Amino acid sequence: MYVERRSHLAPLIVWTRTVETAGSARVLPDGCMDLIWSGAELIVAGPDTLAHSVQNTPGARYAAVRCAPGIGPALFGLPADTLRDRRVPLADVWGERTVRMLTERIAGAADPAALLERLAAERLRDRDAEAARFAGAVVGELRAGADVAAVAAGVNLSERQLHRRSLTAFGYGPKTLGRVLRLDRALDLARGGVPAARVAAVAGYADQAHFARDVKALAGVPLRTLLSG
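Above: the chain's sequence. Below: its structure in token form.
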């Protein structure tokens, strides 16, 4: 069972997950970075370019915070591209002593997710305002369907400068980020029962075949398989 809520403290999604049956789950790329408590360890999940498969152990419980695109570097203190497509112990990022003390606090907490939320919000309180504005502007333009040239012009950068800053902020360039954000929107529509052809048109794909190719490329399975799962 998966439950999420939007934090009122910072640009975060707070989520929990309890595994009820064995098997595997597919985590799709979404441009975000997560801080996850596995019940025994704190883990950083970097921004994915492809679907990530996880094995389910019945009874396992997870609590986590998910950073909005572009916010993760301020929380973890590293450029997003250094964590791209990776799952690493938080101790490798913040240091063993700090994480050991934090692990003890979370292990004894009545609500690990709420504790993670407060911790993340505190670390994000002094984040760079200009970097946050940049991330928000780029994500907003890409979600609206703007191409890379238009996004670069909107933030007063060359396309090369935009690409370099996007690697630091999001983990990949604006073209890849745009594909990830478009797929996220399209799948929301498809899960809501919107026909695939209509999804393709609304989400900004050239046609239904283009939508199907992007699903297979980023999610690793056809749309029908993804929705049935």
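The mean pLDDT is 95.
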